[in-house]
Amino acid sequence: MSDVTRLLEAAAAGDARAPADLLPLVYDELRRLAAARLAGEKAGHTLQATALVHEAYLRLVGGEEPQDWNGRGHFFAAAAESMRRILVESARRKGRRRHGGGLRRIELDDALSVAADDPADDLLDLDDALTRLEAADPTAAAVVKLRYFAGMSMPDAAAALGLPLRTAERNWTYARTWLHRELARPS
């Protein structure tokens, strides 16, 4: 049993020290996941990878109720879901009128170039489509969350979900096609 799995079990059992001992073991991997998620964000966004990791970690282990993680894969799947929710909340918050609404910040150097679509809108559209996919096919949606938001390889995602690799690959192919169709529809 790995140290991560042992500490996850200890945290689930109520050991108050386990979350503090767990952070150094998972921090680099969580930071890598967060940086990968933020790489697609528009330049000048305010959320940094470190802040995303800390917020996600606090949501995972900082609650009143101890979490029962079914191993490393389950923990990182939950971390991916937590990061997804934080990014969606941030995009929604930026879309509110009091936070600038539909206005966008344009750097002086970029003022002469044509601005691309707002990635926050893309993230919200993806979140809505992923929520619809989850209602239609929860397993396919889980594969997307692990692959896209957690940055897991296909074998790791399959193992985290307890699926044969070929089944996970079929779900991934189906989910990508389904999401592409949903995102291509006119609003």
Series of H and E elements: HHHHHHHH
| Proportion of residues in helical segments | 55-70%
Structural class: mainly alpha
Mean pLDDT: 77
Strand content: under 5%
Distance between the termini: 49 Å
How many helix segments? 8
Instruction: Note the overall shape.
Output: globular
Number of domains: 1
What does the model show?
Helices cover 68% and strands 0% of the residues. It has 187 residues and is an all-alpha fold. It has one domain (3-184). Residues 106-118 have low confidence and may be disordered.
Short précis:
With 187 residues, the protein is mostly helical. The chain has 8 helices and no strands.
Question: Key features?
Answer:
187 residues; mainly alpha
Task: Please write out the topology.
Layout lengths: L2 H10 L5 H22 L9 H13 L10 H24 L23 H18 L1 H12 L4 H8 L3 H20 L3
